[in-house]
From TrEMBL:
GO terms for biological process: mitochondrial translational elongation. The keyword Manganese does not apply. Its main location: mitochondrion. Pfam families: EFG_C, EFG_III, EFG_IV, GTP_EFTU, GTP_EFTU_D2. It comes from Coniosporium apollinis (strain CBS 100218) (Rock-inhabiting black yeast). GO terms for cellular component: mitochondrion. This is Elongation factor G, mitochondrial.
């Protein structure tokens, strides 16, 4: 279908042209085709990032096609046959399931909107506000710290049933929902939620529109191909402008977007919305907006706007959907069903995001957003989920959300609870039953599932089984986050989520030695739960060092230690997590020999050290011929290599992108030992590393800054002082967005300076991008500081 589409889109655009309108084709594939066949004017811009996403999706469908081709295998054929002949009852069950996440910039109202969703679906009896006067706090912010600070720290899962009116009938939908944090420091929570969800609601503030963190969330949604609807919240605020937010989705996020509603009244007098698909006015009534009143009478003051925006919606859909393009070309007015079907197709194929609007805090227009979740976001059978078949050279296989197929699930989140480890699992295929034995595809270990629960924030409901396409949590299943579970029949494994590198570290110790046991317990727990939180002990200073995504991230763990484990801690200054590497190949021939009286030490290692070429993992290789070093000793060499990589010779930070090859050596009959080979390797490592022009690497952060246009000069000045590389600047009618790479080291204190330079109106977000060589001056300072600290320690 997609391959045929560009021709239609061309037609739709040509129609616009013939009526004097500007050529506005948003389909990137079409743009590329047209550009190559000179159909577009040369000035028409081809939006490359969007095109790339689209290509990657096409690539994925190609992978699925390959799966179908390979299906000559009988077991795979069985699986494919099931896809084609889905049992109607099963198909109906799935069509009523939605797995969705709510993601957005900080403070956009995710938790406030989720609280309304839970209230309107009958999951909670009353509404409590984030930082509300009753001091109870919202349901999904269950941690004390979240309630006090009014921020979400951990994503929370819940489920609810929404009864939707459809053609005069009531249709019940089952919604699994995950509310995610907005702060970039807790970004892993968004990553893992989006990895397993089928769709998302992207919330935007009606005043601020697309903000820096919205751009990060957009990137994450694209990473996992998650279709989204957008909800412009805070329509009750002064300066609310949903159409500005829509323009920004189009221009900054480069995803075609159009309003499905227009507001009736604004700011203080925001009363409700006009549904542009059905052309009905929708109002909320009742103490908490629980009653929906629909009216065919559209208030006169919004009639013209509603007409104009409905036409815009249809035009945008014609640009991204083939069937709508046909109708548009023929000049036929589409029916409600045709519009809804086009929105659904375009949203699921990631070519469009429908935009709804309302005010969660003022209890307005949240229910239509729930209807849109059911109408436009995919059910589990409409999302292509692939696993890799280890028994067939990791060939991709399509998983089918069908209860009677062999079970495949992905553990996406771990949480320590009073009853032991709680593992959140998304069931992609088959049924997970209480008492069933499952296999961990990574460790090949069998484990019995003693208890299955459905999570409702911090409460749980026990269930005997969970069907395909659903989300649950299990007790007593030991695993790591990202492990695949199967019933043992299939050799399937699923790709895990993206885990960003921690970039900030600080030393930490309990104030009182009596708390050491609790301190270790807490550290172990936090590390298991959060892959972006790491702990290690520096062997020289014997300090415990914690690393994470930012100062807030680490502060929260220090605070949780105090509250949940009653351990008060002392912490050092936050430090950048530098890395070190070699830049030149250095051969070595190192002999460790101590043979003066008693048992001696003897080990000779010969080989070379060199950069791996990519600033990523380190590599150890043995190329011994003729058995000059035995397997046992080579194993010890490898251990020595990895120990050296943990603490580099230059600064004591981890080594990156370094390879060591051992291709010769010598052993002594009595004096050689594993310890001697390990030590010899470490000594050779140190010598070669220092001779190989070592370099300090610093983390570079992908930084997005948004601010009103008048402050652009100030911000560029701030960034120049920090030697940032500015990649792109998008200037809108009021605000601009700037994309830059900045070294983390230069960004300490940036938020205060940004506030001062923009009268508090600028905001920024940072995300780790990659490691880059540190400037020579900084490198010299860091090395000198490290050497001084070493010398001081030796004097003691
Ligand atoms: N005026 C107005 N304020 C709102 C609305 N929705 C939420 N807020 C307020 O915005 C603040 C943030 O709301 P939250 O629901 O915590 O936002 P969030 O996106 O979940 O926050 P994080 O998860 O910490 O990023 C709170 O003070 C809310 O009361 C709205 O519709 N109108």
């Amino acid at each position: 279908m997609r391959a045929a589409f560009p021709a239609r889109a061309q037609a739709s655009s040509l129609r616009s042209l013939s009526s004097g309108a500007r050529l506005t084709c948003r389909n990137p594939f079409f743009q590329q085709r047209c550009a190559s066949t000179a159909l577009l004017r040369p000035s028409t811009r081809i939006s490359t990032p969007h095109f790339k996403t689209w290509q990657s999706r096409r690539h994925q469908s190609g992978a699925a096609a390959a799966v179908l081709e390979q299906a000559a295998d009988p077991s795979m054929l069985a699986q494919e046959t099931i896809i084609d002949n889905l049992d109607p009852q099963e198909a109906y069950r799935l069509s009523r399931v939605r797995n969705i996440g709510i993601a957005a910039h900080i403070d956009s109202g995710k938790t406030t909107a989720t609280e309304r969703v839970l209230f309107y679906t009958g999951r909670i009896k009353s509404i409590h506000e984030v930082r509300g006067k009753d001091a109870v706090g919202a349901k999904m912010d269950s941690m004390d710290l979240e309630r006090e600070k009014g921020i979400t720290i951990q994503s929370a899962a819940t489920f609810c049933d929404w009864v939707k009116q459809e053609n005069g009938k009531e249709e019940k939908y089952h919604i699994n929902l995950i509310d995610t944090p907005g702060h970039i420091d807790f970004t892993i929570e968004v990553e893992r939620a989006l990895r397993v969800l089928d769709g998302a609601v992207m919330i935007l503030c009606a005043v601020s529109g697309v903000q820096s963190q919205t751009i990060t969330v957009d990137r994450q949604m694209r990473r996992y191909n998650v279709p989204r609807i957008s909800f412009v919240n805070k329509m009750d605020r002064m300066g609310a402008n949903p159409f500005k937010a829509i323009d920004q989705i189009n221009s900054k996020l480069r995803i075609p977007a159009a309003a499905l509603q227009v507001p009736i009244g604004s700011e203080d007098s925001f009363q409700g919305v006009v549904d542009l698909v059905r052309m009905k006015a929708i109002y909320n009534e009742g103490a908490k907006g629980e009653i929906i009143r629909e009216s065919d009478e559209i208030p006169p003051q919004v009639q013209a706007l509603a007409k104009e925006r409905r036409a815009k919606l249809i035009e945008t859909l014609a640009d991204v959907d083939e069937e709508m393009a046909d109708l548009f070309l023929e000049g036929v007015e589409p029916t409600i069903e045709q519009i809804k079907a086009a929105i659904r197709r375009a949203t699921i194929s990631l070519n469009f995001t429908p935009v709804l609007m309302g005010s969660a805090l003022a209890d307005k227009s949240v229910q239509p957003m729930l209807d849109a979740v059911c109408d436009y976001l995919p059910n589990p059978s409409e999302v292509e989920n692939l696993a890799l078949d280890r028994r067939r050279a990791e060939a991709p296989v399509k998983l089918v959300s069908y209860n009677s197929l062999p079970f495949v699930g992905l553990a996406f989140k771990l949480e320590e609870s009073n009853f032991g480890q709680l593992t959140y699992i998304r069931v992609y295929q088959g049924t997970l039953r209480k008492g069933m034995t499952v296999f961990n595809a990574k460790t090949d270990k069998k484990v019995k599932v003693p208890r299955i629960v459905r999570m409702h924030s911090n409460e749980m409901e026990e269930v005997p089984e969970i069907g395909a396409g659903e989300i649950c949590a299990v007790f007593g299943v030991d695993c790591s986050s990202g492990d695949t579970f199967t019933d043992g029949q299939m050799g399937y494994t699923m790709t895990s989520m993206f885990v960003p590198e921690p970039v900030i570290s600080l030393s930490i110790k309990p104030k009182h030695t009596k708390d050491t046991a609790n301190f270790s317990k807490a550290m172990n727990r936090f590390q298991r739960e959060d892959p972006t939180f790491r702990v290690h002990v520096d062997p020289e200073s014997e300090q415990t060092i914690i690393s994470g995504m930012g100062e807030l991230h680490l502060d929260i763990y220090v605070e949780r230690m105090r509250r949940e484990y009653k351990v008060d801690c002392e912490t050092g200054q936050p430090q950048v997590a530098y890395r070190e590497t070699v830049t030149q190949r250095v051969p070595f021939d190192h002999l460790l020999k101590k043979q003066t009286g008693g048992a001696g030490d003897y080990a000779r290692v010969v080989g070379w050290m060199e950069p791996t070429g990519a600033l990523q993992d380190n590599k150890f290789e043995e190329r011994i011929v003729g058995g000059t070093i035995s397997e046992k000793y080579l194993f010890a060499c490898e251990k020595g290599f990895h120990a050296s990589c943990d603490k580099g010779p230059l600064l004591g930070h981890r080594v990156l992108g370094t390879s060591m090859v051992i291709n010769d050596g010598a052993t002594h009959m009595t004096d050689s030992s594993e310890m001697a080979f390990r030590n010899a390797t470490q000594q050779a490592f140190r010598k070669s590393f220092m001779a190989g022009k070592p370099q300090v690497l610093e983390p570079l952060m992908k930084t997005t800054i948004t601010a009103p246009n008048e402050f652009q000069g100030n911000i560029v000045g701030l960034l120049n002082k920090r030697n940032a590389t500015i990649h792109d600047t998008e200037i809108g009618p009021e605000d601009f967005t700037l994309y830059a790479d900045c070294s983390l080291n230069s960004m300490f204190g940036f938020s205060t300076q940004l506030r001062a330079a923009t009268q508090g109106k600028g905001e920024f977000s940072m995300e780790f991008s990659h490691y880059n060589p540190a400037p020579p001056q900084l490198q010299r300072e860091l090395v000198a500081k490290y050497e001084k600290a070493q010398a001081d320690r030796n004097k003691k």
